[in-house]
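Subject: Sanity check before I submit

Could someone independently write out the structure tokens for this chain? I want to compare against mine line by line before I put it in a report. The sequence has 436 residues.
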Amino acid sequence: MPKTLNDEQARGAGTATSPAASPAQRRAARLGRGGQHRILWLLGPALVAGVAYLDPGNVASNMTAGAEYGYLLVWVVVAGNVMAWLIQYLSAKLGIVTGKSLPELLGSRIRNRHARRSYWLQAELVAMATDLAEIIGGAVALNLLFNLPLIWGGVITGTVSMVMLAVQTRRGPRVFERVIISLLAIIAIGFTAGVFIAPPSPEGVLGGLVPRFEGTNSVLLAASILGATIMPHAIYAHSALARDRFEVRASGLTTKRLLTATRWDVSIAMVIAGSVNLAILLLAAANLQGVAGTDSLEGAYAALHDSMGAVVATLFAVGLLASGLASTSVGAYAGAEIMHGLLHVRVPLVARRLVTLIPALLILGSGFDPTQALVLSQVVLSFGIPFALVPLVWLTAKAGVLGAYRNRWVTTSAGAVASVLLITLNVTLLVLLFGG
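---
Independent answer below. Compare away.
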């Protein structure tokens, strides 16, 4: 059973004033004396994990939903973002308190070798679906901006992501965070600019907050939006990011202080991700509904160019490129952690990136519609949610895992409700798709 470190033990691990204190411990001591304004130093892991909520799959799902159904699925984006806050906070809390990631904890608890490998296989398929969306999104963006063939765009996107992962390996999490957060800023500007130029209808937005569907395809898109919003690999990754950055044993900060900082971190990340996702849907609903060809990223770009000008269309493509570059790096990080935690195999990030790049390049080279591949990949992610979410809620509710920091009954109940809702949506989707 993993042991949690209480605050007294954490402070006793080394005093910040002693000659043997590490730079991290001395920095932590200064932060503890510096007050709440220094909490900014503790922000970052959730913003990195939050990039997964703004990957090209999100763009395709939200853009398609807005273009086909207008404001109908606004409520899905909002509900998904609310659930995502709770889920990402629980993931980060698990990593902070236990010093282990979710895959590591599951790997130590699933005793049966075949069961553990089966669990890894579904998680790996989810990670591959994520990779597919991100590489394709980057390739489409490079095609729109520079008219590059999709296959070469995929190669370039994969190569840049390998460089970013090498930075994470050699320079550590702080430098990696700065790179990802810079790309996050570009994503936010690129995808929200059009909403300010051509604002959506307030009445339409309010009407879209009423939960409802219109046929099988709207349910498919809802599952796709949720799969892109509440992403399994982001749950796995966030626990590892928080573990690496906020390890109590090394930081010298109290667990309570770290959890307070994490709540701020997750809140900021989810506000940014939710706002950008909503802006994408509203942009399509207000400007692209009923326009022919907007069910693809290329068609949406062309429609934005014709209706709103070259600047908005170019910003959209730049945001799509930044989205692909940032999210593919985070996805590769998550995939490596899944393999390490469940199979106890450590594969270098760059090598893993090279292997998982192949399926995306094969699809790009086959001529399969890239936007359709993006939307379908998000549906795959949606079916992987219960396998990550149910164990997360279960583990964070156990006193034997989190001790005094285990969930309150209200938190566990909210997590259980979110799990039931997501699983029910997926079952409904299967019935509609295969039962007519």
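---
OP: Matches mine. For the report I'm noting this point. The two ends are 47 Å apart (CA to CA).
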